[in-house]
Each structure stands twice: as structure tokens, then as C-alpha cells.
Design brief:
The chain is built from one helix and ten strands. The protein has a four-stranded antiparallel beta sheet with strand order 2-10-5-8. Strands 3-9-6-7 form a four-stranded antiparallel beta sheet, with no helix packed on it. A hairpin with a 7-residue loop joins strand 6 and strand 7.
């Protein structure tokens, strides 16, 4: 088992903006076999309802519940401050993010023991 968490690359350039639909639509999926943090490569420009699904074969085999944390990170401000941080579990989670005024992106930070995971992001306009 690895003991180090791999961090996402720093942001250079920009992220493509996400146009939200009225219905819940899958906007991103990501899978890894290493304990790495993941930045959802989409820029949210409006308030959104977001459903996250996190699965881990290793976590399921061992009966683990906790997966990590999800941060709503404000984009374009010095230091990219985190506006909201939520604990995530190996399950479905539904959040509503206020995006009025400042664009934002999402970052998932797994616990170090989650060496494999599959993340799905579904979103819709508020």
C-alpha cells in the first residue's frame, strides 16, 4: 500500500466552462489505481446541483466507508481559496453549490488508504 497522496498538477491556462442542463447529466468520470487527488477539469459558472458517485474495489473488499473530501475551489482569485469542503463516503452524495459571482471547480482528495477509486460527476442547473 502506498503512503503518499499524489497531488493534481497546478492550474496553468484555463478550464473549459461547463454549460449546465436542466436535467441531471453525467459531466465527468475518472478512475485511478493510485491514491491521487483529482481536479474535475470543468469550470462551473453558475449554481449547480451535483451528484458524486465514488466506488473503490479495495474499499468495498475491506468494508471501508470513508472516501475523502470534496472541495469547491473558487477560480481566478489569489490562491484559489476553498469555499466549501465536504466529507465523502464510498457511496452517492448530492450537493448544491452556490456559484453566483465567482466561477469554481471541484477537487476530490481521497484518504491515503483509498488506492483505487472511480469517480462519476453528474450535474444540473439550479
Amino acid at each position: 500500500m502506498g503512503s503518499r497522496l499524489l497531488f493534481p498538477e497546478p492550474l496553468f491556462g484555463g478550464l473549459p466552462p461547463l454549460t449546465l442542463a436542466a436535467s441531471l447529466t453525467k459531466v465527468h468520470e475518472f478512475g485511478t489505481a493510485s491514491p491521487m487527488a483529482h481536479r474535475v477539469p470543468l469550470l462551473f459558472n453558475a449554481p449547480a446541483k451535483v451528484l458524486l458517485r465514488i466506488n473503490s474495489v479495495l474499499g468495498s473488499e475491506k468494508g471501508w466507508c470513508r472516501a475523502g473530501s470534496l472541495a469547491q475551489v473558487l477560480y481566478g482569485l489569489p490562491g484559489d481559496p476553498k469555499k466549501q469542503v465536504n466529507r465523502l463516503y464510498l457511496d452517492d452524495a448530492f450537493f448544491e453549490f452556490n456559484g453566483a459571482g465567482v466561477a469554481y471547480y471541484l477537487e476530490f482528495w481521497p484518504y491515503r488508504w483509498i488506492e483505487d477509486y472511480f469517480l462519476e460527476v453528474w450535474a444540473q442547473q439550479v
